[in-house]
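Example 3.2
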Amino acid sequence: MAIEPYRRLFQLPGVRTLLLVGLVARIPATSISMALTLHVVTELGGFGQAGLVAMATTVGMAVGSPLSGRFVDKYGLRPVLIVTTAAQAVFWASAWALPYAALVVATAVAGLLSLPVFSVIRQCLAALVPPEQRRVGYSLDSMMVELSYMAGPALAVAGMTTLGSGVTMTVIAVGLTGAGLALILLDPPTRSAEELAGDVQVRTPRRQWLTPAFFALLGTVAAATFVLTGTELALVGTMKHDDQTAWIGLAVGIWCVFSLLGGFVYGGLSRSFSPLTLIAAMGLLTILAALAGGDWRWLVLALLPAGLLCAPSLSSTVDAVSRWVPASARGEAMGLHGTALLVGGAVSAPIAGAIIDTYGPTWAFVAAGLVGVVMVLLALPFWRRRPAVAEPAAESLTGSAVA
């Protein structure tokens, strides 16, 4: 591992500013789900009603993410940011006052018009960073996402429990509006100078990149978040079963720190690894963690090897999207990647919960890891027929053979 790759990355024009804006902009975005859940539970109903609101938001975002990306590809970044920023400002400034039925509809629409900060940052990184340095860039970006998820939900809980729904949702409205305005003013490029100088303005037909291999890639993306969500729920279930709920925050925090460490190490390596390799290894290590019984501290230690692979697994899939898809369709492809992330987590939560309730948290670890391994095996035949790499990348034999 070396620091030098990160130093070279920060020397690229615009990269440092983009990553910093992305880190700050994602914090209000990651607080959305927690804020809505606590608002519904405390003001409008119970967890069942909160689940319906969460589902409406997830469906809206899953549909809206590739649509936003397609509009970015077609019309440019600023028009999409203006519309989505305005939509988020209106929704979050008024959501606290809506009755439940109206809130369900409004959250679906707000999800459809969500600020595409995650996919935009990744798309713009591909434009600013040459192919041979994107692994480093996306590793650092995955670390920034981890930090945002560590801060956003915690701030939402603190706000909802001390300031109330109205003030907290207004703060989120200000945060999302500020994030959108910052990106509008920054207006980072979505295509590199070399791509703009070429013939990428001509839209590439979907059939040239939306292939069975690309769907297999999306399947592994969903499997990765299935593993992560299932692992988190199983960890919480284990500690609740052992009456150790006071230590849940510490345990999850340690897991997140190891994910950050894994992302940092992966970005500093001299070669890339296939998403299939990383996700399969994470799944297998999660299954092995189920063997750690007894004290919760042993369980956390058993999960650390899989935790090290969280950020590298996700960043490797983003890197694959950036290289498989032509620049003229990169926004839509990144949007589909975001949808796959959402779908994996959304499907995992009820399945893991049902397994925990019926068979215990140990089997939830096994199920989560098994899904990751099985999806990799299903994707492997299609992976060998993946499209030609859109841009050459300087990779080692390991990276080029299986990436």
